[in-house]
Amino acid sequence: MADLISYGLLCFGVFVGAFVSGLAGFAFSAVAGVFVLHVRTPTEAVPLMMACSIVVQGASLAVLRNRMTWQGSLAFVVGGVLGIPPALYLLQRVETRIFRTGFGVFLAAYAAYMLFRPAVALVRQAQSRRRDAMVGFAGGFIGGLTAMPGALPTIWCDLRGLPKNQQRGLVQPFIATMQLLALLLMMSRRTLPTGMLNDFIISLPALLAGTVAGIVMFGRVNETAFRRVVLIILLIAGLGLLV
């Protein structure tokens, strides 16, 4: 009975995380982790959530491929690739709880404030690959420590007032690349838990169902609703880091 409840909570968490990620394009680990971390240790949960997130990202990239702007995402990706290795180095050697708490406060405060502001661009500037690369580096670094690489690029797009399709087209390739790179680095160091494959297979139906439902919902929400959903997810993610 205990195993049944454990796997049920695991599948429910994966479904909810996949739905949110399919809808907003990010935050699978932030949402799924609320449930998965109750039934799996962090060393078991983090690689599993990375693998599940890659599936969601891959499905989103395939279904929404006409909206993806790979060339525009390149600066984010290059910066993020440089940001992940030092983050993983620190993750193995120092206590990162204070950093996670501080970032959680920042996310929650930003999202709560922006929820009450009109949807206008606060950063008025021409596109800059240098700035995008800096945001990507910070996103990759933070992603290595919190499993949420898409938070800062999403905030950057929100500050620029980008519409949902453009935001999704820029951030989605970045998140997919960061998650894949982090998982490959873990595999190269042989740090994947032995039971991960079994958990992944069991949760796969819930993962696919949540992904499909989220992507369908993305096509139906308007710009205002999408922005509010993104900010609410950022708020929840920030509060989750504080718990």
Helix- and strand-based class? mainly alpha
**SSE order:** HHHHHHHHHH
Number of domains: 1
Compute the separation of the termini in Å: 28 Å
Shape call? globular
User: Treating each run of at least 4 consecutive H or I residues as one helix, how many helices?
Assistant: 10
> What is the alpha-carbon Rg in Å?
17 Å
Major sheet characteristics: none
Percent of residues in helices: over 70%
- Work out the number of β strands: 0
Mean pLDDT: 86
Multimeric state of these chains? single chain
Strand proportion:
under 5%
Structure characterization notes:
The chain is built from 10 helices and no strands. Helix 1 (2-24) packs parallel to helix 3 (42-63), helix 1 (2-24) packs parallel to helix 9 (196-218) and helix 4 (70-93) packs parallel to helix 6 (129-146). With 243 residues, the protein is mainly α. The protein is 79% helix and 0% strand. It has one domain (2-242).
Topology at a glance:
Elements: H1 2-24, H2 28-36, H3 42-63, H4 70-93, H5 97-115, H6 129-146, H7 151-159, H8 164-188, H9 196-218, H10 223-242
Any key phrases for this structure?
243 residues, mainly alpha, 79% helix, globular
Concise summary:
The protein is mostly helical and 243 residues long.
